[in-house]
Write a structure and sequence with these properties.
The complex is a heterodimer of chains A (154) and B (159). Chain A has 154 residues and is mostly helical. Chain A is built from five helices and no strands. Chain A has one domain. Chain B has 159 residues and is mostly helical. In chain B, helix 3 packs antiparallel against helix 4, helix 4 packs antiparallel against helix 5 and helix 4 packs antiparallel against helix 6. The two termini of chain B are 24 Å apart. At the A-B interface, helix 1, helix 2, helix 3 and helix 5 of A face helix 1, helix 3 and helix 6 of B.
């Protein structure tokens, strides 16, 4: 049971876990904040830009911190010493979401970045909205990862 | 997954919502500090609602599922020092959050008054309210308290 594992977790895992969770929380917060700003912009370029910069300067750093913590923890817990077949499902879910999330976040930032550039010419809102949709997808996937990481299903 | 595992999942998801709400408010604080028009201020209201919903779900969920876990999981007791510390920090975060909300609502109220009076242009008093220093300090304190809760949850001092 994951709760029992949490009680008996070696103390040297705590700091990497803290880095991992804090990064994930900032990532989720950045995605929610950025997507909300774009969703409620109603054509106001100030909010479209704010949403995009939030994705870039909050969600992306959050992802990087989360991933650093994840890899650190992966090594500390000794998963890298085990064969792939021994890796539990919850960890696979976490990695799938993290890898796909990285790719999608990058696409959202590129698409949104082009959109922000085009705002000067009165265009680009559609591209920023597309970035918002991708951000919401990553947010939903991140919540699935939170479920997998904390519930640790078999 | 056992019932306790599900409780833990809901507790952790609520914690994520809590922090996400705080991040939304950080973004709004950044934006509102450069806003001196009633329209610009009022436009933030739907995003304020997103932040309020996230912090509300987060605060409620963490305390409900957290206390439930404390009673349900055999290894924990509600009087464990780290759980008592978390409860105190949670209450402090709520109190600080309430005061922060009051600080920033003053700007929103002023913006609505100005709009009703037909004053759409930049307003120095509105800008001053939106740039509330005590609001900024309170939100910083709230964020630090939330960070301390996370530290407490991970290190579980005294467990």
């Amino acid at each position: 049971m994951s709760t029992l594992l949490a009680v008996s977790r070696p103390t040297e895992w705590n700091f990497p876990l803290f880095v991992h969770v804090l990064g994930a929380m900032i990532l989720v917060g950045g995605l929610l904040a950025g997507a909300s700003s774009i969703a409620f912009a109603r054509g106001d370029t100030r909010f479209l830009r704010l949403g995009y910069w939030t994705l870039l300067f909050v969600a992306l750093p959050g992802y990087i911190v989360m991933r650093i913590g994840a890899e650190w923890l992966y090594m500390k817990e000794g998963w890298d010493d085990l064969p792939d077949s021994a890796v539990p499902v919850w960890l696979d879910i976490g990695y799938i979401v993290a890898d796909a999330g990285a790719l999608l976040t990058l696409i959202a930032l590129i698409v949104g970045g082009i959109g922000v550039r085009r705002l000067r010419d009165g265009k680009g809102e559609g591209l920023i909205k597309a970035a918002m949709v991708i951000a919401l997808l990553v947010l939903a996937a991140a919540l699935v990862a939170v479920w997998a990481m904390s519930g640790k299903p078999d | 997954m056992s019932f306790d595992d599900w409780l833990l999942v809901l507790h952790v998801l609520a914690a994520f919502a809590f922090v996400a709400g705080m991040v939304v408010f950080w973004m709004l604080i950044y934006a509102v500090r450069r806003t001196d028009t009633p329209e610009g201020t009022i436009r933030m209201e739907p995003i304020v609602k997103v932040g309020s919903a996230a912090t509300g779900i987060g605060a409620g969920g963490t305390i409900i599922f957290g206390i439930w876990l404390a009673f349900s999981v055999g290894n924990y007791d509600i009087w464990d020092p780290w759980i008592i510390a978390a409860l105190i920090l949670w209450a402090a975060t709520g109190a600080v959050g309430g005061r922060t909300s009051k600080e920033y609502l003053a700007g929103m109220t002023k913006a609505k008054e100005l709009e009703h009076a037909g004053q759409a242009g930049p307003n120095a008093e509105l800008l001053a309210l939106n740039r509330t220093q005590s609001g900024l300090v309170l939100h910083t304190i709230g964020s630090v308290l939330l960070l301390l809760i996370l530290i407490d949850m991970i290190w579980k001092p005294g467990a």
